[in-house]
Structures are given as C-alpha cells and as structure tokens.
Amino acid sequence: MAVFGYMNPFKVYRDFVRSPIESFVSEQYTGYKKKTNESITSVKELLYRAGVVSVFLSAILWISIFLYVVFYYTYMPNVTHVRPVHLQFKSCDENMGVCSFPSAHVQLTRRTHMLMSSQPYRIKLLLEVPESQINKDLGMFMVCAQMRASGGVLVSSSCRSAMLRHRSKLHQIMRTLVYAPLLISGFNEEKQIIQVELFSDFEDDQTLPVTDAYVELQSRFVQVLSCELQIEAHFTGLRYVMYYWPKTSAIIGISSNLFFVSLMFILSWYHLQDGLPDFIKSKLGIEIKNEKEEDDKKFFGKVKLEREDSFPFIEEETLLEEFQRLEEKKKSISPTVE
C-alpha cells in the first residue's frame, strides 16, 4: 500500500513540488522580513535587491520563451510548398496542334530533403484552364504524377481524373452579362482553376527523401494557361493544436517551461545552500548527516590516533631512563670495590 501511496500523482505533487515551493517561499519571506526589520536601513539596498529579483525573473521568463520558440520551429514543418510547373510537349510537324502528352519535371529541392519524415502531406496540382469550346468538349482527362528521390529512384506514383465544371448556356449568358465590365477591362477572365489532389496522405521516407516530381497530362487536346504544384502539410495531434490555436498553445507551452525552469532554479539554489532540505531527503530515503557528530567523530579519531602514535615514544623514554640508572649504579659500585 505504501508503494501505491507513492505512485499517487497528487501525493507526489504535494510532497515533491508544492511543499518545497511553499517552504522555500515562506523561508525566504520570513528571512527577508527578519533581515528587513533588523538590518535594512537604506533605500539603496532595497533597490539593489529588487533589481536582482527582477533580473532573475526576467531571465527565467526569457529562457522559457526561447525554449518554446526553439521547440516550435524544430517540431513544426513548413505548412505549404509551392512550385511552378512548366509543361512541355512535342509539336506536330505537319498538322497544327500537340503531338505528345504535356509533361514537366519539377525540382522540389536541391538539398538532400525538403519534407519532414513521418508527416502526412497533401499534394495538389492546380490547373488554370480557359473555358474554351475545346476544353468543354474534351470532358475528362487523366493527370499523373511521380515522386522520385535523388538519382531518379521512384518513391510513389498516382493518377487522377479531372474536367471542367459544367455550366449551362443560361448560366454562362447571365455570368457573362454580370461580369461584362470586368471582362472588358481585363480584371477578369473566362477561365477555371481545377484542383487535382494527387496524394491525400503522402509521407516522405527518411531513407529515400523526395527531391523531384514528374507531372504528365494524358491528353493532347487539353488547353492550359498555367500550372503549379502545391504540397500542404496535413497536421494531426499536437501539430494541429499548435498550428490552429497558436496563442493558446504558446501560453500553455511557455507556462510549462516557466514552471520547470523555476523548479530548476529553486533546486540549484538548494544545492548551492548545502543540498536539499531534510524532508525531501527523508522522502527520497537519503541518509541525513549531522555536521556536529561528524566533526566530533573526526576530532576523537584524531586524538585516538595521536595517542596510539605516542605509545612507542613513551616506551623508548622509559627504557632510556632505566639504562641511565643502571649505568649510574655501576659507576657507584666500581669505586667501592677498588
């Protein structure tokens, strides 16, 4: 049961976090109050202490903000990558028009990798096509793409169908009448933007990072004004929260960093003040040493050693004295014999 009691998070928080902080704050408050009542007599000392406290608080705050910013830019990838797509085709020699499928090679990056591994991405192809009669009569056509690593290694491929949005003749006439001033002035054009989602959940492989993309329109009759490739990060979990609620996540992250940095400062202060308090040592099972007892033991041990070392010298002195006495007795006896 004692083990389960120590595993209780509320008990651990109360014993190891709240109690040390409360005792530290109360000790500091009473200590500074006592010193204030006894020794603080000048405004200069008060300003000095307030400056030291403000410096420490500002340092803790800026360290917490810096840690959150570093974590954000390390953990969060770039949201969108946009690359222009320049289609190429083979023109016919005799007849007018296109004699091959329009295709393009898109270089995503010149470095080793551009996408973050284990992060889902949505890859779209945006086609800007005119509302010409040829495109209307064309109907559906296929759009294919290949994602390749450095050296031309195929990583993934996909093909999707696309077509213009249908508009009836009445809708087209009314739209033309409404937008007539903009169409005449050139602010608007009779065109549509087709979004073709080629990959809905693409994840880059760390061993084979994608560096190039190949796009092909499998129709010789489609007319395209411009084209671009969009790669958007699809966030889930913590990245989703950090991206769509940046202020809330920043407040929570900085507050957490502030708590842990403050705890580290407090523990460092305790360490500089000759270790942790006695109640934390008792909770952790650390032996509490008494400085007076250790000093007494050292003193008595030193005296004992000195006494043990002094015995041989005392024996030598007594032997010398006895030898001198025997010599004196011999000398006193020798003249009487003569």
UniProtKB/TrEMBL annotation:
One Gene Ontology cellular component term attached to this UniProt record is:
endoplasmic reticulum membrane
UniProt superkingdom? Eukaryota
Primary place of residence?
Answer: endoplasmic reticulum
Q: Name one GO biological process term.
A: lipid droplet formation
Localization recorded for this chain is: Endoplasmic reticulum membrane
Q: Does the keyword Transcription apply?
A: no
Keywords recorded for this protein, A-Z? Endoplasmic reticulum, Lipid metabolism, Membrane, Transmembrane, Transmembrane helix
User: What name has this protein been given in UniProt?
Assistant: Seipin
* Annotated TM spans: 46-73, 249-272
Q: Name one Pfam family in it.
A: Seipin
Encoding gene per record: LOC113392028
* Record-linked PANTHER family: BERNARDINELLI-SEIP CONGENITAL LIPODYSTROPHY 2 HOMOLOG BSCL2 PROTEIN (PTHR21212), SEIPIN (PTHR21212:SF0)
Per the UniProt record, the lineage of the source organism begins with: Eukaryota, Metazoa, Ecdysozoa, Arthropoda, Hexapoda
Topology versus the membrane: Multi-pass membrane protein
